[in-house]
Design brief:
With 427 residues, the chain is of the alpha/beta class. The chain folds into two domains: 10-222 and 392-424, Quinone Oxidoreductase, Chain A, domain 1 (Alpha-Beta Complex), CATH 3.90.180.10; 227-367, NAD(P)-binding Rossmann-like Domain (Rossmann fold, 3-Layer(aba) Sandwich). It is 24% helix and 21% strand. The chain is built from twelve helices and 19 strands. The protein has helices at 39-46, 94-101, 149-152, 215-218, 224-236, 251-263, 276-281, 299-306, 321-329, 354-358, 373-385, 406-415, and strands at residues 11-12, 16-17, 54-60, 69-75, 82-91, 116-124, 136-139, 179-181, 184-185, 198-202, 206-208, 243-247, 267-271, 288-290, 313-316, 337-340, 362-365, 397-402, 420-424. Helix 5 runs parallel beside helix 6. Mean pLDDT is 90; it is low at 1-45. One zinc ion binds at residues 93, 95, 115-116, 223-224. It is an enzyme of class 1 (oxidoreductase). InterPro entries: ADH-like_C (IPR013149), ADH-like_N (IPR013154), ADH_Zn_CS (IPR002328), GroES-like_sf (IPR011032), NAD(P)-bd_dom_sf (IPR036291).
């Protein structure tokens, strides 16, 4: 039977279903007829690659800002507390683009980027008990070891061991890369490196999700959409009837707008320098628009005038330091809360007059919308699948390309066209 994603899931007896990895499309030619064979035969075929180096395709970034090159790479087997994942869908987030451009970020090349994705576990390393081959998973750029003080705290998702680390380009366990292309080790990115048909990740950076979830949609929950949504519902927490300003109307910002709408905000003011974003943003509940370029005074003053002194909440999703400062200064004194989400340049610093804080404004920041990836992400996916949350992921997916056309996804993002571009692996 096909699930809603068009992925084949076979019923084997009353309660068994085969996960999407067994779709004939993602299976070697000689095994395509295996859809009719028993689960035992198919599982045996899966385990053929366990413990071995896999040769597959990956999009390697050899130089900053230069098109990625599809290369044959060797992917080493997972080591202790690691899994090797067959990536089925990935998408491009602006964070990939910053580190690929390496203008305001530390360069590390050659590198395999990618951190928004969905796939299936191919094999597991020593000591792995939580995940098994065939599990449907979302790799996440910030992990959850479940042991440290942060993981044990209800308030934090900043795991001591696996929190986002853009400088780490090797695996934690042995300080080595699991990728080789043209005889050279290739740097990892954010512990995920999903622009590869197979990748290796630490188990703490992998969320096991409902196998019935449509992977070509929920892959965007592995970064951008959860980040924006969580920034609103978990961090900014706007009250019913309140006003919210969202800076940056890309996928992350529009997910924040969705979160504000779901929370019952009455006014959602979208701020962007790209006016083509405004029409699209109406579908996400944004009620008013401000283009800072249309005004000869700072945008925070424009917003203060529109809202009788400032918005109740603001959420910054641009990566621009100027927008971060404006987002803070545009919240109302006494109760306003600003949340920073965008990734700044390495040398940026945040400058505002301390009186802005003394006047009882609050400044916060968040990674991954404060969701704990292994604990909260499976629940979020389940709520989406069961339609318990009014979250329409299709609205965020404006483009789709085959893996061989991955550079087109970069072009769309650089031109500010569309929101998320799904990259189909194996196509
Ligand atoms: N904190 C996290 O966990 C996390 C996770 C994912 C992404 N991010 C960051 O969130 C940001 C948004 O990501 P995205 O994928 O939606 O990017 P995007 O490029 O799709 O959207 C960014 C939008 O911001 C607008 N913009 C840029 N500068 C602006 C300014 N000064 N004022 C107003 N608008 C401005 C752009 O026109 C664009 O529409 C990026 O900085 C990304 O790195 C952070
Ligand atoms: Zn991202
Ligand atoms: Zn931890």
């Amino acid at each position: 039977m096909m699930n809603q994603n068009g992925i084949l899931v076979h019923s084997i007896g009353a309660r068994w279903t085969l996960p999407p990895v067994f779709h004939y499309k993602y299976y070697p030619q000689h095994l395509r007829s295996s859809t009719k064979r028993s689960l035992r035969v198919v599982k045996a075929a899966m385990s053929n690659t366990a413990g071995q180096v896999i040769k597959c395709k990956a999009a390697v970034s050899w130089e900053a800002g230069k098109p990625l090159v599809i290369e044959e790479v060797e992917v080493a087997p997972p080591q202790a507390n690691e899994v090797r994942i067959k990536i089925l869908f990935t998408s491009l987030c602006h964070t990939d683009v910053y580190f690929w451009e390496a203008k305001g970020q530390k360069p590390a090349f050659p590198r395999i980027f990618g951190h928004e994705a969905a796939g299936v576990v191919e094999s597991v390393g020593e000591g792995v008990t939580d995940l098994k081959p065939g599990d449907t998973v979302l790799p996440v750029f910030t992990g959850e070891c479940k042991e440290c003080r942060h993981c044990k705290s209800e308030e934090s998702n900043m795991c001591d061991l696996l929190r986002i680390n853009t400088d780490r380009t090797v695996m934690l366990s042995d300080g080595k890369s699991r990728f080789i292309a043209k005889g050279k080790p290739i740097h990892h990115f954010l512990g995920t490196s999903t622009f590869s048909e197979y990748t290796v990740a630490h188990i703490g950076s992998v969320a096991k999700i409902d196998p019935a979830a449509p992977l070509d949609k929920v892959c965007v929950l592995s970064c951008g959409i959860s980040t924006g949504l969580g920034a609103a519902i978990n961090v900014a927490k706007p009250k019913k009837g309140s006003s919210v300003a969202v800076f940056g109307l890309g996928a992350v910002g529009l997910a924040a707008a969705e979160g504000a709408r779901i929370s019952g905000a009455a006014r959602i003011i979208g701020v962007d320098m790209n006016p083509s974003r405004f029409e699209q943003a109406k579908k996400f509940g944004v009620t008013e628009f401000v283009n800072p370029k249309d005004h000869d005074k700072p945008v925070q003053e424009v917003i203060a005038e529109m809202t009788d002194g400032g918005v109740d909440r603001s959420i910054e999703c641009t990566g621009s330091i100027a927008a971060m400062i404006s987002a803070f200064e545009c919240v109302h004194d006494g109760w306003g809360v600003a949340v920073l989400v965008g990734v700044p340049n390495r040398d940026d610093s945040f400058k505002t007059h301390p009186m802005n804080l003394l006047n009882e404004r609050t400044l916060k920041g968040t990674f991954f919308g404060n969701f704990k990836p292994r604990t909260d992400l499976p629940r979020l996916v389940e709520k989406y699948v069961n339609k318990e949350l009014d979250l329409q992921l299709e609205k965020f997916i404006t483009h789709e390309v085959s893996f061989s056309d991955i550079n087109k996804a970069f072009d769309y993002m650089l031109k500010g066209e569309g929101l998320r571009c799904i990259i189909r692996m194996g196509a």
